[in-house]
Amino acid sequence: MPSREEMARNKYLAPIAHRFLSPELWRFTRRSVPRGVALGLFAAFIIPLGQVFLAAFLALPSRANVPVAALVTFVTNPFTLPFWLVVANKVGNFTLRIDADGPALASTALETGAWSAVADFFQMAGATAFGFAVMAVIAPAVGYLVAGWIWRAVVARKRAKRLKVMEARLDQRLGSH
Does the pLDDT of residue 17 top 60, yes or no? Predict the structure, then answer.
């Protein structure tokens, strides 16, 4: 993952560097982190290649955290891709309500001939592609909500800890007087 400074030196990013290197896009805030998670998940499931660049590009107008958006895209990587293909196929089949036999083909020649494997492949690929599209809509929404809840829980825990320390200091000061 390139750092902010490395991206500033990149000659291809020079035309948009002033927008891309804005400090607000690199801060971890309660609004930018969930946006980054949502954009990263969207980019991860919508296209097979160039997800990091898509997520970083989409982070500009939405003021999302660029490092989080880029990092979350790695949920789909060469090691996890077979898992996501199976999940996307199942989501696509469930969403389209395709039964195990598949929809009837227009021509029985395709069904019984040499082209049946090709027709089956395109049928399965279509369901898988649709599954990825469905996941590209649902996963960002769920990711945004979960990231927001986690952010609130972490902040609440830190605040409770800080209040506990302050209370202990106050008790110590009052007890010593």
Answer: yes
C-alpha to C-alpha distances, 59 to 75, 132, 174, nearest whole angstrom: 17, 21, 50
Burial (CB count within 10 angstroms: exposed 0-12, middle 13-18, buried 19+), residue 158: exposed
Count Cβ atoms within 10 A of the Cβ of residue 160 and give its class: 0-12 exposed, 13-18 middle, 19 or more buried.
exposed
Record the tokens describing residue 82, joined without a space: 């077979």
Both structure tokens of 27: 């801060």
Q: Determine the distance from the C-alpha atom of residue 148 to the mean position of all C-alpha atoms in its chain, rounded to a whole number.
A: 14
DSSP 2-26: --HHHHHH-SSSGGGHHHHT-GGGT
Q: How confident is the model over 23-50, as pLDDT tens digits? A: 677 778 888 899 999 999 999 999 878 8
- Nearest CA to 136 out of 83, 91, 71, 82 is that of 91
What is residue 105's predicted lDDT score, i.e. its pLDDT?
A: 42
Structure tokens at 91: 């989501």
Selection from 102, 78, 105, 107 nearest residue 92 by Cα: 102
Work out the end-to-end distance of the chain between its first and last CA atoms, rounded to an integer number of angstroms.
54
Q: Identify the CA nearest to 148 among candidates 55, 64, 35.
A: 35
In this prediction, residue 106 has a pLDDT band, given cuts at 50, 70 and 90, of very low
